Amino acid sequence: LKKHATQHPENETISFPIHVKLDTGMHRLGFEEKEINELLVRLKNNKSIKIQSIFTHLAASEEASHDKFTLLQLEKFESMSSRITSAFTYPILFCYRFHCYFYGRYYWIY
After folding, report:
1. What are φ and ψ of residue 52, in 5° steps?
2. Does the chain have fewer CB atoms within 10 Å around its N or its C terminus?
3. Which residues have CB under 8 Å from 94's CB, separation 6+?
4. Nearest-CA neighbor of 96 among 85, 109, 107, 83?
């Protein structure tokens, strides 16, 4: 974001779509909850950047033994993504894909 802001002045009419990954517990990639305020400032200060989607990676959703952690990740995703979407007037897509295992059957949720 910093590099884009210096290369593309705010008055340009170029729209640069981005996909925002939120770190909801895997701690490999994505913006952490403590970084959301700074992210919003940077995005608001550069009108050429437009959020296309917000997504996360659910670490162990295919394993029933980790259902509690998956639900915590979903709650964190909801909280973080709502902070972002409430700051913008245009629609933003939410993306995540995960397995669910309930009552002996697997389900895919997109």
Report:
1. -85, -45
2. C
3. 53, 54, 55, 81
4. 109
Residue-wise pLDDT for 58-95, tens only, equals 777 667 777 788 888 888 988 999 999 999 998 888 76
Identify the H or E element spanning 37.
Answer: helix 36-44
Contact 46, 4 (CB under 8 A): yes
Q: What is the tens place of the pLDDT at every residue in 29-63?
A: 899 999 999 999 999 988 888 898 888 887 776 67
DSSP E strand boundaries for the chain = 16-21, 49-55, 93-95, 98-102, 105-109
Cα(90)–Cα(68) distance, integer angstroms:
33
Residue 41 tokens read as: 């400032």
pTM for the predicted model, two decimal places = 0.75
